[in-house]
Amino acid sequence: MQIPEPQPEHNPRPRWLLPVVLGVLMLGVAALLFDRAGAPPPGARVDITGGPAPSAVSREASVALSEGRQLARTICASCHLFPEPELLDRVTWAMEVLPDMAHWIGMRLHDEDPYLALGLDERVREARVIPEQPPITLKQWRAICFYYLHEAPDSAIPQPERSPIATGLNRFKLELPEQRGRPRTTMVHIDPAQQRIYLGSIGDQYSGMLSVFSGQGVHERSMPTASPPVSLTIQSTQLLTTLIGPYGPSDELLGQVVSIPRPDTPATAGGDLLTRLPRATQAFPADLNGDGRMDIVLCGYGHILGRLSWFENKGEGNYEEQILLDQGGVLHARALDWNQDNRLDLLVMTAQQREGVYLMTNLGDGDFEPRAIIEKHPAWGFASFDLADMNGDGLPDLITANGDNGDFTAHLPPLKNYHGYRIHLNDGNYNFTESWFHPVNGAFKILARDFDGDGDPDLAATSFYADYENSPEEGFILFENTAPASLSFQPRTFPKVYLGRWITLDANDLDADGDIDIVLGSMGSGPATAPDKLRRQWRDAGPPFVILRNQTAK
What we know:
five-stranded mixed β-sheet, single chain, 36% strand, globular, 29 strands, alpha+beta, four-stranded antiparallel β-sheet
């Protein structure tokens, strides 16, 4: 895919700078890991400068490797699934993961305050999530470091082969709004009844904006919000809107659920429904206790101290919180009667610490029973899920995207060979089997819809952390379902996919013509391995959203 060259920019960053900085930082990390804990075992050859891993080690080193492996499985698995060394390259282990892990287990190698070193909020300190005394000795910590740095690959393992992404969406027409430059979109939501688009975006500081556009992409009005809107439910006269609070990692209780009057209804009062929430990524109404009142389900992602809650509607605007899952990273949920007992259950995705998808079965009387559907290691990067019958057997299957690659800050995020989109087939007995995988760097948002009107679900997906250097077409892919029984898809994108950095999307009938349109939302900032010309395109001329108008019905 050819990307048009932008206008020249003065003072480009020297291409030699990053390798030099990386080398210096890695030498510093070597000192942090080993100088304070003692040198590696005699005969051990640990090269964290990117050189080849040794093929043979001394007997002493072999003992250290064995001890480090056993310790890692014990210590690391006490908080999350065990991460194998090959999940990340040696540079990332050395520069990012191991230094942070030392703080998390209370090693205090340089007498640092671990809470300050990790940039954690005071609430996290008060929760005492870091032990006062480490569970292992310095010698044992050295063995863990030696194990990971010895066994990790020199560079990221490449992704497996995949079907090529064809350019051209014959069923769709690209439409751009007039707005250009500095896209900071956090949400797009199609209102098919009123043929409108709601767009959430980041404002100054913590503030946000909820904007309304016509079905043709013409701006109608904007409403300032306390923080960026990230989810929305259209009700009879109100918009139930989730405000995230700080958009970046934070445990401040600044999230909110607010009621905003719909622009197409007579003026009514809105207001705050829930406040002082952990960084909130989704809230929606659902009658979980069957009393006829709409309760509110909250996904409080937070950072370290998030939670999944439901707020029981007590009437007259009063809600009482019931915590279902007490952990950070609660990202997204769906209410549905999974076991057909006339009670709404919850399917929830978590994306921090112990990443996974969990079914919360409603037992009645406010009690829920959790069941793990999928559990993954903390580098997995879950970003979204959807449900649809993908193989035509009448059962809802689970479609997931894992590609969140924003965990690391000391250097550009490494590409990961396990990032991509997956279909997990449902056997009807709470078992889901991964049956289709399309590797995509930075896979982020995925929706299942019948875009071509042939009766089976297709997939529309964005990648926020795509490999923009080598495969910018990853930014948006439409997977046309060509054979449901064998889960065969034809991936396609549109020629100008490079116009935005697509973080989110929605799909619905925007123009009431009987087919499903797509709106993509762009966030032009954030860590990425992107060429300068793309960054300038997003910054100077990128639209906040685009419409892919479906022409099937026409």
